[in-house]
């Protein structure tokens, strides 16, 4: 025991008293001895072997190596003394032998022999002081510091709370940063990202002091500073209105100097981008695109961000991409399914523009390493429009993608989506059934959600109870009970479905059937008298049965519960103002599976001002509707292949995706080039 640092000052007799309380334990290599966050109910003394101490960063989930401990060292003593959870994880790097001292034995030793407790406390205090000296980190008492509110505002409050840090002083490009954990490398990195070029001088403070400061002094300091700035601005404006000339200008300058904000400090750092970010840290709520365009006329970043949103809405885009590149920032819009570059912006406005979008979508502006998801809600000409915002870190900075959800689009009837009268009648007949499942299939972005909502809109009467399970909720529907799934708390589609069945529903919509449990409950709901709408990812209508079988649903349950399947794609719609007809050549007819002597009329693009000279305006759906009859049900129940089911359905009059595409082409709705991009036309 005397070889262990903690007991080196004890006499032989005192070591014997301690030894009687110890238990020897042997640990194999790569074994976790204590885990971060676990109870601190014992301490360990290494007699042989080697262990590593790691601490997990809560933001990234990465375990950072703090140190390695050899024989003669101990661990777990601080948790034992304070009663707090373990602060780090300790794992063996090789076979290790440790002597353990349980909490009850430790307390008995302190009570029975004060000399032992005094010796142990002295060693612990010396080691703590030595550790701080080696790190060169000064301990500070926050109550004795004179904080400048302007310095406090250098960092966003969310970052301060997240990392338990405080900007305590700023001078000559050096930031004094009070930290509860000075080993938090992620916190230091975040500060350097926010304040470019700053030199950080960390000091240590206690967690108790930090919490007390944040709950009392922090808010008061910022509030007083805001009041001071507001008062100075009012006095300045008063002088400007009542006086003129050099004297008034001098007084105004003096008053405005008293209300110096973050901009004044950051000018010394020459960080123009951060200035834009700070100005907009607490924006006013955004209610309409018109209000956005008028707000902050003197803030170029705000106007630029608003113009991008307004332009996307005006052009009918479905997505906005803000993409940092090496020397510029590209803004691209997805219009009618195709990306179009609309702006190339200077690199220097990148941080301000990205931050503006993150602020109004309520994202963490300080977090730049991890993807984030948010939402922006606006109104344009009384149309409610949502932007579903997604950020992801890329090589040249954070990339932002915003999906535009125009809620007015869901008010379209099925007749605006399905242009072929025969196919439209078939779908309407399917949704008129009192019970059963209707599957809508297709790849991501093929319009499945729009079709589902349009179908619900035709059934949404006051005497019908409709419930939907969605992830996320893309559109608000009146008289519909919409539930957002939250996997992180266990609220998945299956759990929501089970709850729906106790809510007396008539119609149920499930955003997507992803697993066996969800599929099984949906089938049970259909068989017990409910009409169910849901989506699957398959290439064609008959593929839905194969997909359900792969999930583990019995074929006889599939056949008895399914009303029908709608497979769909989206293709660009020809501009009806400038399209021109032509007679395709023999090779094109052969490729499309048509007879050379059929001589159909196809249509191609021309371009005019109404379609911005692209030849296309909007998109049109391509549909394949498989309605189950007795023959198809029997085949599904017997586990027939999707190919044989498709063949039987075609014999019964089903139009395949290819058939529907040809109908669209011959009726001037789209072009051959567009069809070939979304549908396989060859057998």
Description:
With 683 residues, this protein is an alpha/beta fold. It has four domains: 5-135, Jelly Rolls, CATH 2.60.120; 137-265, GMP Synthetase, Chain A, domain 3; 279-406, 2-Layer Sandwich (Beta-Lactamase); 412-570 and 622-655, P-loop containing nucleotide triphosphate hydrolases (Rossmann fold, 3-Layer(aba) Sandwich), CATH 3.40.50. The chain is built from 27 helices and 27 strands. The chain has a seven-stranded mixed β-sheet with strand order 21-20-22-23-19-24-27, sandwiched between helices. Strands 15-14-13-18-17-16 form a six-stranded antiparallel β-sheet, with helices on one face. A four-stranded antiparallel β-sheet has the order 1-8-3-6. The radius of gyration is 34 Å and the shape is elongated. Mean pLDDT is 80; it is low at 243-298.
Write the layout of secondary structure elements.
Elements: H1 12-19, E1 23-27, E2 32-34, E3 42-48, E4 51-56, E5 63-69, E6 74-75, H2 77-82, E7 89-92, E8 96-102, H3 103-112, H4 114-135, E9 138-139, H5 149-152, H6 157-163, E10 165-171, E11 174-179, H7 185-194, E12 199-204, H8 207-215, H9 217-242, H10 245-258, H11 262-267, H12 272-279, H13 289-294, H14 300-314, E13 319-324, E14 328-335, E15 338-346, H15 350-360, E16 372-380, E17 383-394, E18 397-406, H16 414-417, H17 421-431, E19 436-441, H18 448-459, E20 466-470, E21 480-484, H19 493-500, E22 507-510, H20 516-527, E23 531-536, H21 543-551, H22 555-561, E24 562-574, E25 580-582, H23 586-591, E26 602-604, E27 616-627, H24 630-637, H25 642-651, H26 657-666, H27 672-678
Parallel strand pairs: 9-12, 11-12, 19-23, 19-24, 20-21, 20-22, 22-23
Antiparallel strand pairs: 1-8, 2-7, 3-6, 3-8, 4-5, 4-7, 10-11, 13-14, 13-18, 14-15, 16-17, 17-18, 24-27, 25-26
Helix pairs in contact: 3-4, 9-10, 12-15, 14-15, 19-20, 20-22, 22-24, 24-25
